[in-house]
Specification:
Order of helices and strands: HHHHHHHHHHHHHHHH
Helix content: over 70%
Distance between the termini: 38 Å
Strand content: under 5%
Oligomer: single chain
Radius of gyration: 22 Å
Length: 509
């Protein structure tokens, strides 16, 4: 699940009389929902894909990690393209490409084609998603935006809850004998309708002062992540060859080159992909670290959890999807309480409590999985999942606000885009680490009777790592401001740029 930041674009106030804006809202919200559901819907179908296509476990990781990596690498650039060439135009290109990529995923003839199609789908989502809030800002006047963002929050919650259930129903239903393929093909009629209606009802808008693209920056980020992730996911299969370690070490060199390049580009034309001056703000640097590490923990947990329930315990996709409902509901309830009631009173302590509560839920789950083994039931999982969900809800909703609260307002757009990007990169890294923390403790050749116990052992081992990650997050949060909701002068309390990486000029009082 990616966080989406709410910020205010420096565009002229739109007219309130045009009813078409509500059609435009429905269209962009549908696109946002498609992306949110697509992230969660695939996890639940992964065991079916693995079984039907004979995919290796590293290919399974890439079906999920490839999407996250492409999405992360293209997110800021997608926003910039909308600023420069028009948000409506780039949104329509993104949703059209997303629909085509969904068709290719659904028609994939082998695992390699599915991985490539998922990477394309992630890249198209990176064009589509950043335009959503920008179009809302350009279409709705300030006094209507509160209502609109309330709807947006509801859509985010609905996407989180319905994704696994929809994936389970479509996979179990085996529509027309297509097995798992309808989870992708369902995007086709939705995408075609959104493309047709979007071309009619969305109003075009551009940034008043668009920045230039930083394609070398994007290339360096992508190369560094590939050099890190590819050896992680393939290393176990290939016997951890020397080139893998060389590649992972080389990724650090590429990251260093990226920093040097971004510093030089910032000095030359003021439009780097990454605004390095932001990292001088302690709370922002710590917040980026929290977002990245949190993404790693979530990436590990959700893939391993699905494999444990469906392959290890032999549960159907529908039973696995229904088992996750208490978690999703707990996240939604706790997120609402966190923002509205708890953070205004207790500040940073709420986020730290969330990390500890979530870690407690993980440890309860670990103890139950170890104790009950293959005999565990969905009801016995409900308690740890509710505790984990409550902890996650306390973190996810106020975290972005805490990270942005001390960022100067002229960099709010860049900071927001960077937060989304690193969370997705962390997610991709977590999916890569699954081969180490989960498959690393499972023998490659298992007799059918050995699969269940081996997957239970792998799951409990992975949960230990997730609990350790949450402990690290708790410590990192000490560097966040004590009162994240209290914006400093010139921070996100003033009007901000949309979540596209666009800088906003100083406002004159």
């Amino acid at each position: 699940m990616h966080s989406t930041d709410i910020a205010h674009a420096p565009t002229p106030e739109p007219a309130t009389g045009d009813r078409r804006r509500w059609f435009a809202l429905a269209i962009v919200m549908t696109a946002a929902f498609m992306d949110l559901v697509d992230v969660t819907i695939v996890n639940i179908a992964v065991p079916s894909i693995q079984r039907d296509e004979g995919a290796t476990f590293s290919q399974i990781q890439w079906i999920t990690a490839g999407y996250a990596l492409a999405f992360a690498a293209g997110l800021v650039t997608g926003g910039r393209l909308g600023d420069i060439h028009g948000r409506k135009r780039v949104f329509l290109v993104g949703i059209g490409g997303f629909t085509v990529a969904s068709a290719l995923c659904g028609l994939a003839v082998n695992p390699e084609m599915l991985v490539a199609s998922r990477i394309l789908q992630g890249a198209m989502a990176a064009l589509m998603v950043p335009q959503v809030l920008s179009i809302v800002h350009a279409t709705f006047p300030a006094h209507e935006r509160g209502k609109v963002f309330g709807l947006f929050g509801a859509i985010v919650g609905l996407g989180a809850v319905s994704g696994p259930l929809l994936g389970a129903l479509l996979t179990e239903g085996n529509l027309f004998g297509l097995e798992w393929r309808p989870i992708f093909l369902i995007n086709l009629p939705v995408g075609v309708a959104a493309l047709f209606l979007g071309s009619r009802f969305i109003t075009e808008s551009k940034a008043p002062r668009a920045l230039k693209l930083d394609l070398p920056g994007v290339a360096l980020v992508t190369l560094a992540l590939l050099m890190l992730l590819y050896p992680l996911t393939r290393g176990r299969e290939l016997g951890w060859p020397v080139w893998g370690y060389v590649s992972m070490a080389g990724a650090l060199v590429v990251f260093a080159a990226l920093v040097a390049y971004e510093r030089a580009k910032g000095a030359r034309d003021g439009s780097p992909l990454i605004e390095l001056s932001l990292f001088r703000v302690k709370s922002f640097a710590a917040g980026i670290a929290v977002q990245t590490v949190f993404g790693v923990g979530l990436g590990v947990f959700f893939l391993v959890w699905t494999l444990y329930m469906q392959i290890g315990l032999g549960w159907s996709a529908l039973r696995a999807g229904l088992t996750g409902v208490p978690f999703s509901v707990a996240v939604s309830v706790a997120a609402g309480m966190s923002v509205q009631q708890l953070v205004p009173r207790f500040g940073r302590k709420v986020l730290q409590a969330g990390a500890l509560v979530m870690a407690a839920g993980v440890l309860i789950y670990l103890a139950e999985a170890d104790h009950y083994g293959l005999g565990i039931t969905s009801w016995q999982m409900a308690l740890p999942l509710v505790v984990m969900g409550a902890g996650m809800g306390l973190i996810v909703a106020p975290l972005t606000d805490a990270v942005l609260s001390e960022v100067p307002r002229e960099h709010a757009g860049s900071a927001s885009g960077l937060i989304n990007t690193v969370q997705q990169m962390g997610h991709a890294l977590g999916l890569g680490l699954v081969s180490v923390v989960f498959f690393g403790v499972i023998d490659e050749r298992l007799a059918p009777a050995e699969v269940g116990p081996a997957f239970v052992d792998g799951f409990t081992h992975a949960l230990g790592w997730v609990a350790a990650v949450l402990g690290a997050i708790f410590l990192l949060m000490f560097a966040l401001p004590k009162r994240p909701a209290q914006h400093v002068e010139g921070a996100a309390g003033a009007e901000e740029a949309p979540v596209t990486g666009e800088k906003k000029p100083e406002l004159v009082p």
